[in-house]
Write a structure and sequence with these properties.
Length: about 375
């Protein structure tokens, strides 16, 4: 295990009817801007609960943050923050709303000439507006980490700063019962691949992180299909919500190598073709496992044994079975496992590779050995 420093400062407020706790977790003299997406929170009762919790605060709202939040939308919120003097942001929604709010937080106090430099040039974030959040779509783990993904046209870029980590996060599984099947499935897949990106690399004798990651994977495999079959099961929703949060709160990442090749390739597919982020992951990840099977051999064998109880056969046979089982789980969640299922083919591969290069994504992987040709092989395997 490598040396590490772990410090997660987000206060988690978990359980049914906990949105009222907002009142006790935002400084009373705050001027609060509530950020959200397309308005579903007004249909499922979340907006009214937030409104009640903020009744004694000076607050306003900014709506319309998209899935894969767009820079052009977010800078309108930045303008509002600056002109009207908001000093606290409350993100209400899923990972895209929270990611977008993190950008608003950093950009509102950015002292450079171009706020897009935060993403494009990794310009340092030295100040940020405080953030709290109410999570309504368990998937990204953004509610308790430092990362954010923001889009500007076809560019889908990432930045990270401890200053944009939410101070608190309300996780009420009841808010997820009204989610459409597609969003439920996407959230489970997102959390699953987040876990695999940190787990399925190479051995470092990090037993706690490995066992923790395996528990998350097994929980998602068990509970994901249940949520599709019985969406009103609050206990299932609670387990998924907590697993998704734990998958990317940085705990299973400490002391271990990380991959993220699937995410980098997937971001380009989303940016170019608008495919749901989680569905790019379900398409690309099995191909990464296949192409990088030698580099990942030890961990795939461990994954096969501990998660799927595959114990017999040659190493290659076991790896093949583990990849098959992974695909079967993805299919059970109703997500694609090939580019052809989202109407993409070999003709689209070069555009994806071109963007990988132009965005300086390469080389990829836990060893930094996935170059342009290996990425091409991964995409061809995913056809």
């Amino acid at each position: 295990m490598k040396s590490f420093i772990f410090h997660n400062t987000t206060k988690i407020i978990f359980g049914k009817n906990q949105i009222s706790e907002i009142t006790n977790n935002i400084p009373k003299d705050s001027k609060v801007l509530v950020t959200y997406g397309g308005g579903s929170i007004k249909n499922n009762g979340v907006y009214d609960q937030v409104k009640t919790a903020l009744k004694d605060f000076d607050w306003d709202e900014f709506s319309g943050i998209e899935p894969n939040p767009q820079y052009d939308t977010l800078v309108k919120a930045v303008k509002k923050v600056k002109e009207e003097g908001f000093n606290y942001l409350l993100a209400v929604g899923g990972g895209s709303v929270i990611d977008g709010t993190k950008f608003i937080s950093a950009a509102s106090l950015f002292e450079g000439e171009n706020v897009w430099d935060i993403c494009e040039k990794f310009a340092p974030v030295t100040k940020a507006v405080s953030i709290g959040c109410v999570l309504t779509i368990p998937a990204t783990g953004s509610e308790s980490n430092c990362g954010s993904v923001v889009s500007k046209g076809d560019d889908k870029l990432f930045f990270s700063s401890p200053l944009v980590r939410p101070q608190f996060a309300v996780l009420d599984p009841a808010t997820t019962i009204s989610l459409p099947e597609r969003q439920t499935a996407n959230g489970v897949i997102d959390a699953f691949v987040h876990t695999m990106e940190q787990y399925c690399t190479y051995q470092t004798n990090s037993k706690v992180q490995d066992r923790y990651a395996e528990a998350l994977l097994m929980t998602l495999i068990e509970e994901g299909p249940k949520a599709l079959k019985n969406p009103n099961d609050l206990e299932t929703r609670a387990n998924i919500m907590w697993a998704a949060s734990q998958a990317l709160n940085e705990l299973i990442a400490v002391g271990v190598p990380q991959d993220w090749a699937t995410h980098m390739i997937g971001h380009e597919i989303t940016g170019l073709y608008g495919v749901d982020h989680a569905r790019t992951l379900s398409i690309v990840y099995p191909a990464v496992m296949s192409v990088c099977r030698k580099e990942k051999e030890g961990k795939i064998l461990q994954y096969a044994q501990r998660v799927f109880n595959i114990t017999s056969g040659s190493s290659d046979d076991i790896i093949d079975m583990a990849i098959t089982k992974t695909k079967e789980f993805f299919k059970a969640m109703g997500v694609p496992v090939s580019l052809s299922e989202v109407n993409l083919g070999e003709k689209d591969i070069e555009a994806i590779l071109k963007n990988l290069s132009s965005h300086n994504r390469l080389p990829l992987g836990e060893h930094g050995k996935i170059d342009l040709e290996t990425a091409r092989e991964i995409l061809k395997t995913a056809l």
